[in-house]
Amino acid sequence: MVLPMLKPTMTVEDAGDYDEQRFNTTGFLDTAIVTICHTKTKHEI
């Protein structure tokens, strides 16, 4: 089951020294504040 985050959300680039570009997205999932860390590739996010 996929639960979408409710708007508004905020996404910022992680400034760490990694071999890939990383992002952190924070927003509401029902009444909880959650942060999801993710990367982008050619095939998936």
Spans of at least 5 consecutive residues with low confidence = none
Using DSSP, what is the number of strands?
A: 3
- Beta-strand percentage range: over 45%
Mean pLDDT metric? 84
Largest sheet: 3 strands, antiparallel
CA-CA gap between termini:
18 Å
**What is the percent of helical residues?**
under 10%
Order of helices and strands: EEE
**Radius of gyration based on Cα positions:** 12 Å
Q: Indicate the structural class.
A: mainly beta
What's the helix count? 0
Looking across the biggest beta sheet, what order are the strands in? 1-2-3
Describe the protein's architecture and organization.
- With 45 residues, this protein is mostly beta strands.
- The chain has one domain.
- Helices cover 0% and strands 53% of the residues.
- Strand 2 and strand 3 form a beta hairpin.
- The chain is globular.
Short description:
The protein has 45 residues and is mainly β. It contains no helices and three strands.
List the helices and strands and how they pair.
Elements: E1 6-13, E2 22-29, E3 32-39
Antiparallel strand pairs: 1-2, 2-3
Please name the defining characteristics of this protein.
single chain; globular; 45 residues; mainly beta; 3-stranded antiparallel beta sheet
